[in-house]
């Protein structure tokens, strides 16, 4: 993809030697030398963003990304869940975890980990794990097959993940940019409110106009969103046995069919016996937004920056219509359309757009 290659080469050089054995010094180099030299965006709460490899990434996670690129040793059985934020990551984490670990944790079990822990506590982000050394020990302790997540763009994944001869399975979830924007804006407002509660200050204002302006300019976590999506879409076309591309809108329309896809792709297709017993349907039910929302841990638990309940809002397609004016939507649509021209990719439910 031409524009991605161009962007990556803009300012990727300092950190871009992922497989050199300089793991120990990587965090220090990154923190002290490389990160402060990258373009900075401070208008997009809650984190300052730095532009790296053509993408705007949260500054606090860049050392973790660098360490993951240098040190992550994927296993062929690993399942890496990738997403642009607010695109259904939490749902995919729950579905993938429940699917690949169904032998140890039958979805109907009252003691299922997803009934006790938030999906983000069942499946961690690679870049977060590598912020807390020794990451290898934490990863080695995960049950096999290991399910790990990332918001890293495809072009910034560790080379070992994308290597043709090795690597691991990658599952990407894509969402309509207008819904991702609205979800991100409302989530950000919740993180600001949570931070304000902690500090005892009034929450910082963050208007939709401000969020749209930044999003259209690609200046949001993982942005530009459409470049993030297209990078994985292209990888799924060139390496379909390694990269599965799912769409949030398709998953809402046919959750069971998509869970079957996930099971087959990860080498754990449902047996006839499981099909007859409705195991895929049970996984979908366990991971439905209503079921997860109502679990005690998701009503009252908390992640570092935000309450667990913030991860479960409406969970529908097209909610942007309730927030954006037609002019706002047309502006973003035009930017996305121009950026995607010639790529062969289009957003939306595949029953409408392919
Ligand atoms: P909305 O804000 O549009 O409701 P992420 O997990 O990447 O942060 O994405 C959050 C979005 O996924 C939110 O969208 C949230 O409601 C939705 N979501 C969370 N859990 C879901 C589930 N089990 N099923 C469907 N959507 C879910």
Give a quick precis of the structure.
The chain is α/β, with parallel strands linked by helices and 354 residues long.
Structure overview:
With 354 residues, the chain is α/β, with parallel strands linked by helices. 49% of the residues lie in helices and 8% in strands. It has a single domain (23-352), classed as P-loop containing nucleotide triphosphate hydrolases (Rossmann fold). The chain contains 20 helices and 7 strands. Helix 2 (23-34) packs antiparallel against helix 3 (62-71) and helix 14 packs across helix 16. The structure holds adenosine-3'-5'-diphosphate. Residues 83, 85-91, 179, 183, 186, 287-289, 292, 311-315, 319 line the site of adenosine-3'-5'-diphosphate.
Descriptors for this entry?
354 residues, Rossmann fold, four-stranded parallel sheet, 49% helix, disordered N terminus, binds adenosine-3'-5'-diphosphate
Count of DSSP H/I helices: 20
* Low-pLDDT ranges: 1-14, 16-25
Computed structural class: alpha/beta
- Chain oligomer state: single chain
What order do the SSEs take from the amino end to the carboxyl end, as H and E? HHEEEHEHHHHHEHEHHHEHHHHHHHH
SSE layout and pairing:
Layout: H1 2-11, H2 23-34, E1 40-41, E2 49-52, E3 55-58, H3 62-71, E4 79-83, H4 89-100, H5 113-116, H6 119-122, H7 126-129, H8 135-140, E5 147-150, H9 159-162, E6 169-174, H10 177-199, H11 208-216, H12 225-238, E7 243-247, H13 248-253, H14 255-265, H15 272-277, H16 279-286, H17 289-293, H18 296-300, H19 326-340, H20 350-353
Parallel strand pairs: 4-5, 4-6, 6-7
Antiparallel strand pairs: 1-2, 2-3
Helix pairs in contact: 2-3, 14-16
The structure holds adenosine-3'-5'-diphosphate.
């Amino acid at each position: 993809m031409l524009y991605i290659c161009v962007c990556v080469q803009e300012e990727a050089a300092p950190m871009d030697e992922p497989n050199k054995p300089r793991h120990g010094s990587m965090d220090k180099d990154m923190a002290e030398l490389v990160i402060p030299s990258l373009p900075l965006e401070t208008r997009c709460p809650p984190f300052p963003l730095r532009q790296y490899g053509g993408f705007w990434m949260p500054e606090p996670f860049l050392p973790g990304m660098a360490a993951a690129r240098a040190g992550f040793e994927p296993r062929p059985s690993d399942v890496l869940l990738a997403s642009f934020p607010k695109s259904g990551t939490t749902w995919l984490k729950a579905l993938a975890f429940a699917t690949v670990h169904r032998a140890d944790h039958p979805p109907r079990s009252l003691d299922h980990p997803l009934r006790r822990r938030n999906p983000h506590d069942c499946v961690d982000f690679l870049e977060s794990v590598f912020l807390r050394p020794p990451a290898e020990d934490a990863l080695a302790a995960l049950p096999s097959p290991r399910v790990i997540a990332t918001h890293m763009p495809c072009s910034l994944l560790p080379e070992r993940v994308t290597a043709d001869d090795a690597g691991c399975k990658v599952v990407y979830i894509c969402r309509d940019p207008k819904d991702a924007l609205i979800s991100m804006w409302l989530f950000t407002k919740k993180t600001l409110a949570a931070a304000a509660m902690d500090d005892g200050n009034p929450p910082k204002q963050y208007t939709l106009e401000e969020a749209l302006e930044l999003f259209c300019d690609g200046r949001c976590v993982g942005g530009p969103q459409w470049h993030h999506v297209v990078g994985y879409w292209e990888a799924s076309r060139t390496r379909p046995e390694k990269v599965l591309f799912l769409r949030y809108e398709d998953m809402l329309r046919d959750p069971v069919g998509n869970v079957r896809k996930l099971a087959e792709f990860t080498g754990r297709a449902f047996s006839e016996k499981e099909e007859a017993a409705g195991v895929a349907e049970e996984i979908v039910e366990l991971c439905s937004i209503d079921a997860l929302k109502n679990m005690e841990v998701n009503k009252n638990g908390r992640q570092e920056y935000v309450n667990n309940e913030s991860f479960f809002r409406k969970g529908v397609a097209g909610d942007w219509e309730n927030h954006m004016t037609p002019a706002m939507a047309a502006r973003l649509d035009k930017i996305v359309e121009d950026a995607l021209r010639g790529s062969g990719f289009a957003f939306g439910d595949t029953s409408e757009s392919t």
